[in-house]
Amino acid sequence: MALKKSDLYSSLWASCDELRGGMDASQYKDYVLVFLFLKYVSDKYAGKAFAPLTIPSGSTFADLVALKGSKDIGDDINKKIIAPLAAANDQLSLNDFPDFNDASKLGSGKEMVDRLTNLIGIFQTPGLDFSKNRAEGDDILGDAYEYLMRHFATESGKSKGQFYTPAEVSRIMAQVLGIGQAETTASTTVYDPTCGSGSLLLKVADEARVRPTLYGQEKDTTTAGLARMNMILHDCPTATISPGNTLADPKFIQSDGSLASFDYVVANPPFSDKRWTTGLDPENDPFERFTAFGVPPAKQGDYAYLLHILRSLKSTGTGACILPHGVLFRGNAEAAIRKKLIRSGYLKGIIGLPANLFYGTGIPACILVLEKGHAHEREGIFMIDASGGFMKDGNKNRLRSRDIHKIVDAFTKGSGIDGYSRLVPLAEIEKNDFNLNLPRYIDNREAEDIQDIEAHLHGGIPAADLDALADYWKVCPGLQKSLFKANRPGYLDLTVETNGLKDATHAHAEFAAFVGGLETHFDAWRKSTAKSLRGLEPGCHPKQVIHDLSEGLLAHYLGRPLLDAYAVYQHLMDYWAETMQDDVYLIAADGWKAETYRILVEDKKGKPKDKGWTCDLVPKALIVARYFAKEQTAIDARQAELESVTAQLTELEEEHGGEDGAFSELEKVNAAAVKARLKEIKRSTGVPPVNPGSRNKPARPQESPEPELLRVAEDPAIYHITPKETDDDAIERQALLEWLNLSDRASALKKTIKQAEAKLDAAAYAKYLKLTEDEVKTLVVDDKWLVTLDTAIHGEIDRIEQALTSRVKELAGRYATPLPELTTRVADFEAKVAAHLAKMSYD
């Protein structure tokens, strides 16, 4: 069976539990990622001629498994696995790998042996066979690597999370470069002077039509090693990653001693590096990076990295760099550099990002886009303030798919959007003394909700407030007329009660037609999409599937009034990440097969325990809904009845549970205790014994296997009071007997439900073996994927109605009672209070 992405991620993250607690995340990530790397290259390249990596005999993953339990396991991994692998491949170095015999991190003696043995065991799982579970052209392993890097960065904290650029930011940078629209070849070059783990480089490579040649430099030697492994995991084994300080010792130099130049340069340098001059004399820089623009401040290295990027670009090159917002407005030396940079025409655009996105800092950052090719034609700088578009993700903020797409669309199309983006003329920037602070040019503040004094004094809803809802009235002009009537010039009254506003809106012909139009619009997309989804075949590329699907959905909804097309797009992307991605990967590997499997979990003794069965592609609920709806309805009815009986039991216990209640004599309210108490009552009063199911109950019909609920109140014979029996005894006996009958009914219902569920479970399980491919497609495409998306997108329609009615209610309530009326009410209340006080002879 194919490997699901979610299963792969959970398995890999479980491996971290073997190390977590013994060391910092920035350290244990090295061990986990190296094992992932060793497993992958062994599965993919071992024993294959002309492979990009050579796996020496004795250094395969199988040889690693053979070391499990060895008392010298750490030393053997170093000498028998890693050393030969590094020696056989120029792309790798011993410095790329951590020390697997480090007792200070892995423990000593048996602790080290157990820890490494368990870690190997996790990667030994049969499902993690990367030679079979990787769809052609889809980087399931590379994505897993990114997943781990992000989690490690999250745990590493502010000081150690800079090895990773969030994938969402990397995607924006890769797309605004325009490499996806360019005619790239293998000779196209991409460079990252502060590449970290290489994620940003790889995102740029993914955007290109033809994979370019990648170059990177990273100051931290260990992180540079991770980057090299990352390149290999992403099928970029020829990428060149060099360790070293980029500013003091750049590694990519041309034959004449000048800096090498590249077609594309991207970077996420350390923010405001205070030690950027270490090993460097900026005034006498041999590479002339600061000659044309000036030397950055000694304690602020942001412009140093930006000028290095500019110097590393070809004359037709494009670059993008992440920097803190301070570079846009700080003064002194940086202001002088910024002024020259703007006048050079090299600065194409600025994208302001939300705060708290990055793992190394919580401050807001921006992306500066550089373009040399059209510098002399530059008439302005395109600015985007995207600081408001994000979601909370733990203690960090994260860009959603919709936020990324909106940024890229606005930038690549040059779209001016109020409060979001615009092309700012150079003349306007010059008037602002070359200050690029985004709020000077884009006002993204929400419109202030102004209180209308006259409306508070005289009542009526201000027409200006209703005019702010113009988008609704354009779609439904008659709705406004039906909801409001004139009060006086500039003010209107609501014609319906506020509690009936939603119904009135929903029932209005124009609004109903608008909703119907949106439903028809979705149906058109659903029909065309269902056809394409049914056409998926083994070997399809899931990333291409979601790209085509999401872009088609976004294009289908762009321009629809009142509906946010990016919100609709986000629903699809969320569902893809949650469920659909795994499904498509299963189809890509195995086709339309609804394969069931047993759910086995370990008990406390470590033995497997069968918890039933399941099917990932076609869950049981889909089979039941389509083929066994009648049986499920019957079970649901019994379940509802059981809930009702259970509620009656609870109510009865609460009613008679006080100190003098019928159940006060019982330590526990259960069948045994209730029967025992009834026997006690019999002995003390002489009342005939209670024997549920015999003479105190009506006979059960033979055709029904279930006991009928005894209506005790309708059988006075049961309450025959003997001379010795008091009223309290009768009440207690009645309550106990009623509880016992309800308990019998609940038990019978539980048994019936359990039998019915077992029968349904067996029938559903048997149905899987009879499913045709067309039936599987119907279940997955129509009943699973499109039904879920239909529900989510209809939620957006509901939000449109909710937003309108909520605002109108707010306005109506705000001005419902004018000030004079409030004053009169206060006076009336004062008079009433005074009258009451006078009656009480209080002066």
UniProtKB/TrEMBL annotation:
Gene3D superfamilies given in the database record: 1.20.1260.30, Vaccinia Virus protein VP39
Signal peptide annotation: none
InterPro entries per the UniProt record, alphabetical: D12N6_MeTrfase_N (IPR022749), DNA_Adenine_Mtase (IPR051537), DNA_methylase_A-5 (IPR003356), DNA_methylase_N6_adenine_CS (IPR002052), Restrct_endonuc_T1M (IPR004546), SAM-dependent_MTases_sf (IPR029063), T1MK-like_N_sf (IPR038333)
Annotated DNA methylase adenine-specific domain residues: 138-449
Region (Disordered): 683-708
Top-level taxon of origin: Bacteria
Enzyme class: transferase
Annotated catalysed reactions: a 2'-deoxyadenosine in DNA + S-adenosyl-L-methionine = an N(6)-methyl-2'-deoxyadenosine in DNA + S-adenosyl-L-homocysteine + H(+)
Enzyme Commission number, as recorded: 2.1.1.72
Record's keyword terms, sorted: Methyltransferase, Restriction system, S-adenosyl-L-methionine, Transferase
Keyword Transport: no
Xref: PROSITE patterns: N6_MTASE
Occurrences of domain N6 adenine-specific DNA methyltransferase N-terminal (ranges): 10-122
Pfam families linked to this entry: HsdM_N, N6_Mtase
PANTHER family reported for this sequence: SLR6095 PROTEIN, TYPE I RESTRICTION ENZYME MJAVIII METHYLASE SUBUNIT
UniProt cross-references to NCBIfam families, sorted A to Z: hsdM
Similarity section: Belongs to the N(4)/N(6)-methyltransferase family.
Protein name, UniProt field: site-specific DNA-methyltransferase (adenine-specific)
Organism: Haloferula sargassicola
